[in-house]
Predict the structure.
Amino acid sequence: MSYESVKNAERYSIMYRFRFLRSVILCRAVLLFILSGLMGAVSGANVYWVSTTGNDGNDGSESAPFASISYALTVIEDLDTVRILQGEYYEQVLIQDLSGITDFVLEGIGDSVKVLSPRSGPVMLINYPFSQNTVIRNLYITHQFSDSSGPGLEIEGTALTV
């Protein structure tokens, strides 16, 4: 076998491997795209937005957010996400009696998302035994006044990632 034919065989081998890997990667990407679309359609996972400039009469979209975290929790369904925009929210958030909901995400968006309760007792109470993988992240939870009593976050009977 000549040197030239060996080189050509190597080139074809490398080209074949490259084409094969490219097709495998493309097939995986298409499969992941299809599966992610199907999972979104099956789960019905919605994203609701909350802003200090919002209104609880809005639809909770990014362009028309709700005003309160508590209200957003009344409209969520299983696997939904509530995104809370930067600002200070003066409310006591009670997460309990969420009929038919096992998991949801409550997340602060931005550098400073504060939940401040103007009263005694917990700022955020989570008493929901049906939760399996609820996630709460990027929230600063505290009392508005230093003389208020009670915990910032109280968790009872649930599995939760904070």
